[in-house]
Each structure stands twice: as structure tokens, then as C-alpha cells.
Write a structure and sequence with these properties.
Keywords: Membrane, Transmembrane, Transmembrane helix, Transport. The chain is mainly alpha-helical. The chain is built from 18 helices and three strands. It has a three-stranded antiparallel β-sheet.
Length: 426
């Protein structure tokens, strides 16, 4: 029996509806991971305190704990999909939290950290529903569209939160810049809510989503290990790139343009290229290549710190390539693996386990990287990061080898049985 129309929307609808939510979530992430660290460093905060911003990622690391509750609420045994309700409540709390942050200056680190953590809790909950909706709505052959929405939306949001936000802070001040982002979040959530209200129908779902069901599957355990290794080697040291550029003599507006324009153009282009390369070469080859390129970028940062005579233009170019292009290239492949390993009947739980691993490793790595850069110096820090990325290459190649794990294909072949119109059976 064919799945309901609401379960198989066109790829264009997914890009518009789900992509808007990914952009909104990444706006907040861009502020946290790129924008705010540069603002705080410009205003004299120690690198160790800048690294504490990684603690805001704690809800993203722990969201697997409440993902089963959210997924069972979102997908009741009989009834309408409740994704839109989760998005409305979580999005509203995020907007309110940003509005409050606008009243505090960035030097009020404690209150800002507390409020942004609440915002992260709300957006992490929305992301559970968003990921589950994407996994269940698209057949495996169309996962590339979801990856484009996820990674492309993430880089567009990061460009806004880490780039445009800094330009607004430099030109208008803290409060107007934060409030402008809050208004933007509202606009980005509208397409998803309109589509959800128009297409959600009552459905019978025989499978009960659970964390235990996810952990029993070898694909999930393999994916968690791959995610932890990849994020540790590829991502955690990137939080220090903004402070590194500030200490290298660049002003806040320049760093904002690097984060924004580089992410917007280079990141989006690399995301599209990554999607094409995954289809041609496979996710494993793209992941390995991205790690090699990122290791080279880290080694360059170390060399630039030790030899300041290297032109500033070269530093900017590598910073853009490392933080935008290479990152996008690798994470398109990683997200493709996530979707491949996820069960469409409980995608919000399975995908959340991978993202929680990403967030926990990023959080711990970010805190450690701040103190490491402060006490070891940028040269030693980035050289060590380069060695770590290079060492992770054979491990990722082994974990993501073709045919490893398997077993998810049958879930996609039988996906129509998991989402039957209310009152019908197989």
C-alpha cells in the first residue's frame, strides 16, 4: 500500500519547510560557536572563559534522554503528526530567550550563558522533531535532498549567526543585533508550520519508538563511534579560529565577513559539491578526504602563528576554506551516513543519538581547546589538532567501510507498513 501523501512530500517542499528550521537552529549555533566568541575576545575575555561557551551545547548532547518522549508524543499510535506543535512551542521559547539576551550585554557572561542554554534546550527539542520528520518523510533514494536541507541550512544559518551578526553588532550594537535574529527565527519557522497544518493526517503507527530499540541495532552503535571520532578530529579545534584571527590583528567586522561571506558562499557551494561527491564516490571517501584537508588547514594555522610573515590574505583564505568549505564537505557525508543508519519509524531518536554524540564531543572538546590554546599557544594547539585529524583517517575508513553494519535497508523497504492511514492494516 502506498504511503500517505504527507509522508512523501516533494524534495522541493522538504528543502523549503525543513530547511527553514535547520537555518533557524543554526543561526543560534552560529552566534554561540562563532559570533559570541569573537565578541567576547574583542572585549578582552580570556580564552579559557571563551571556551566555556561550549557548555551551551549541553542540551544538544543530552537530548537523546528525552528524545523517546518527544518522538512518542510526535508520533502517537493513532492520530495526527504533532511535529508542528513541538516546533511552535520550542520556537516560541527560543525567540523569547533571544529577546531577553538582547537586554544583557555580552560581558554579563553568566546570565547570557544561562539564557542561551535555555534557548539551546528549546532548539534541541525542536531538532528532534525536525530530524524525525525528515527521515520518515523521504525514501532513501531522496536522502540527498534532506542532506542538502540540513547542511545547506546549517551553513546559511551559521553565516547569519557567525557573520552577519558580528557585522550588526559592530554597526548597530548588541541589543538590535540580537533582536533582529529573534525576528528572523519567526520568519524561518513559518513555511514548516504552514505545510504541517495543511498536510498532517490521522495515521496508524504499529511501531513504538524507543531508545532501547535504537541501541540494539549495530548501525546505531557504529554510527555513534564514527561520529565521536570524526567530530573530535574535525570540528572541536575550529572554535578557536575566530579568537585566533582576532589575536592575529583582524578587527571584529573582518572576522564577521570571514565567517559570514565565507560560510554563505564557500560553505553552500561545498555542501552541494559534497552531495554530488557522496553520490559518485560514497560517503566514506568524502569523509576521509575532508579529514585530510582539515589536517592540512590546522597545520597551516600552526605555521602562520610561528611565522607571522605568511601573508594575511593566505590566512584568511585558509580560514574560510577550513571553517566553511572543508567542514561542509565532510558533514554532508556524515549526515548521509546518519540518515542511512536511522530507522524511518523512529528517526527522531536514531538521528538524535548521532547529534547528541556530536554535541557532547564538541562541548568537551571546545572547553579543552580553549584552555589548551591559552596555555600551549596557538602554534602547538593547531599542530596537535592537525595530528589528531590525520590519525583519525584510518579509523573512519575502517568504521564506514561498505557493507559494515547493514540491516537498515529492510526498514526502508517496509516503510509503508510503519505509517498506515488510521483504520487500515497491512
Amino acid at each position: 500500500m502506498a504511503a500517505p501523501a504527507s509522508v512523501s512530500p516533494s524534495p522541493a517542499v522538504i528543502v523549503l519547510a525543513v530547511g527553514g528550521l535547520y537555518v533557524a537552529q543554526s543561526v543560534i549555533g552560529g552566534v554561540t560557536w562563532a559570533g559570541l566568541p569573537a565578541v567576547l575576545r574583542e572585549r578582552g575575555l580570556a580564552l579559557g572563559n571563551v571556551g566555556l561557551l561550549s557548555l551551551i551545547a549541553l542540551p544538544w548532547g543530552l537530548k537523546f534522554l528525552w528524545a523517546p518522549v518527544i518522538e512518542r508524543f510526535r508520533l502517537p499510535p493513532v492520530g495526527r503528526d504533532r511535529s508542528g506543535e513541538i516546533v511552535m512551542w520550542g520556537g516560541g521559547l527560543s525567540v523569547l530567550g533571544l529577546a531577553v539576551v538582547g537586554f544583557w550585554g555580552p560581558v554579563s557572561l553568566g546570565p547570557v550563558l544561562a539564557c542561551l542554554t535555555v534557548v539551546a534546550l528549546a532548539t534541541a527539542t525542536v531538532d528532534i522533531a525536525c530530524d524525525g520528520y525528515a527521515v520518515e518523510s523521504l525514501p532513501r533514494a531522496q536522502h540527498g535532498w534532506a542532506n542538502a536541507a540540513q547542511v545547506g541550512g546549517a551553513y546559511l544559518g551559521s553565516a547569519i549567526g557567525g557573520g552577519l551578526f558580528l557585522v550588526l553588532v559592530a554597526g548597530l550594537g548588541w541589543a538590535p543585533a540580537v533582536w533582529a535574529l529573534a525576528v528572523l527565527l519567526v520568519l524561518l519557522g513559518v513555511p514548516f508550520l504552514l505545510r504541517w497544518r495543511a498536510t498532517a493526517i490521522a495515521t496508524h503507527r504499529p511501531h513504538t519508538p524507543s531508545l532501547a530499540a535504537a541501541l540494539r541495532r549495530p548501525d546505531i552503535r557504529r554510527g555513534v563511534l564514527a561520529c565521536a571520532l570524526y567530530v573530535l578530529a574535525h570540528k572541536t579545534a575550529m572554535m578557536m579560529v575566530g579568537p585566533f584571527l582576532i589575536d592575529a590583528g583582524f578587527d571584529l567586522a573582518t572576522v564577521g565577513l570571514v565567517n559570514g561571506a565565507g560560510t554563505l558562499f564557500v560553505g553552500l557551494a561545498a555542501a552541494l559539491a559534497g552531495g554530488a561527491l557522496v553520490r559518485v564516490c560514497g560517503a566514506r571517501a568524502v569523509l576521509v578526504s575532508a579529514l585530510g584537508l582539515q589536517a592540512a588547514a590546522f597545520f597551516f594555522f600552526a605555521a602562520r602563528h610561528l611565522y607571522p610573515a605568511i601573508p594575511a590574505s593566505a590566512l584568511i583564505a585558509v580560514a574560510v576554506a577550513g571553517s566553511s568549505g572543508i567542514m561542509a564537505l565532510g558533514f554532508v557525508a556524515l549526515y548521509a551516513q546518519f540518515m542511512h543508519w536511522s530507522d524511518p519509524r523512529q528517526g527522531g531518536i536514531d538521528f538524535t543519538l548521532f547529534q547528541s554524540t556530536d554535541a557532547l564531543v564538541s562541548m568537551v572538546g571546545g572547553v579543552v581547546s580553549g584552555y589548551a590554546a591559552q596555555h600551549l599557544g596557538y602554534g602547538v594547539f593547531f599542530a596537535g589538532a592537525g595530528l589528531l585529524a590525520a590519525a583519525a583517517i584510518p579509523a573512519i575508513a575502517l568504521i564506514c567501510r561498505p557493507g559494515a553494519g547493514g540491516g537498515v535497508e529492510a526498514l526502508y523497504q517496509d516503510r509503508s507498513a510503519a505509517f498506515l492511514p488510521s483504520g487500515e492494516s497491512r
